[in-house]
Amino acid sequence: MADDERFATNSARVANRVELVGALEACLATADSDSWAERISAVGVPAGRVGSIADGLRLADDLGLRPLIDLGPDAIKQVRHAVDYSETPVVRYDRPPRLGEHDAQVRAWLASDTPAGDA
Q1: Arithmetic mean of pLDDT, 101-117
Q2: pLDDT of 23 above 80
Q3: Helix, strand and coil in the chain, % to nearest 5
């Protein structure tokens, strides 16, 4: 395809987009996404397959990035901040509220005249 005049320049690729897409789809269908990512990365082009959020968390974990933080036995794991600073913690992590945990406070606020930012 690199020697095909229909695809030699950007304007030619745009003009022949239908043919280009068809040729690329046919070529890409010959292997799975992991194989293509490996082959493309091997020649110095960063590449990876599009995955789910779970795939991204697994990859981050495999790379040692510790993507999740455990907030204790009564809470589910949460996604943590992606950056670690040597001297200063980024954020304080709290578990999410349980269903109905703050109902009384929310109802009291809704019944008050307090603006949302001042609650």
Answers
A1: 87
A2: yes
A3: 45, 5, 50
Task: Check pLDDT > 60 for residue 119.
Answer: no
Q: What is the pLDDT of residue 11?
A: 96
Domain of residue 69, residue span:
58-93
Q: Is residue 14 in some structural domain? A: yes
**Nearest to 76, CA basis, from 61, 62, 97:** 97
Phi, psi of 78 (to 5 degrees): -120, 155
* Tokens coding 7: 């695809």
Kindly provide the residue ranges of all beta strands, DSSP E only, lying in 4-111, ordered along the sequence. 68-69, 78-79
> Do 3 and 36 share a domain, yes or no?
yes
Our count of domains for the chain comes to 2
30 and 71, same structural domain? no
- Taking the model in full, what pTM does it have? 0.47
Same domain, 17 and 42: yes
67 with 41, same domain: the answer is no
The pLDDT of residue 113: 84
